[in-house]
Amino acid sequence: MFRPSLLFSLALLASPIGLAYAEDQPTLEIVWPQPGSAVDLGNDPEKAIGVVLKSNFTLLPAGQCGANHQCGHVHLKIDPDGDTCNIPGKPSNSMNSDFGGDLIKARFGHCPKAAGQHVIGVLLADDYHKPVLVNGKPVTALVNVTTK
After folding, report:
1. For a Cys staple, 76 with which of 6, 39, 94, 138, CB 3.0–4.6 Å?
2. Bridge partners, residue 123, by sequence
3. Quick check: pTM over 0.70?
4. Residues 75, 53: contact at Cβ < 8 Å?
5. What does UniProt give as the signal peptide span (predicted)?
6. Alpha carbon 125 to chain centroid, angstroms
């Protein structure tokens, strides 16, 4: 026997409404600094610079996302292949989990050499600091800069 509700369900699955397209997947981009740019270090003891992000995720303080599954915060590492630029005792250099938003500090004062060539890496994390995954891989963005 034909069931209209089954047909409606199948139509939803075949329609754009029922499918997850790439724009629905979490995205993360470093807008500033631009790749290959030379950046002046901050005058503060941490020699911090601001890193501006763009994401289709809502970036809120950790624990504030509630039922919004397109929400989280960002963890930043300078020279992410190692741990030399991490804040002592922490697994990263910076997070925006306290305040959210699209601006995060990169603290070059924790690096053995603040001035020079560096990679800024950011990772999208959920409300509980776990990496957000797409196809089993974390959502990340990298940019090469020279600090002076």
Report:
1. 94
2. 75, 140
3. yes
4. no
5. 1-22
6. 7
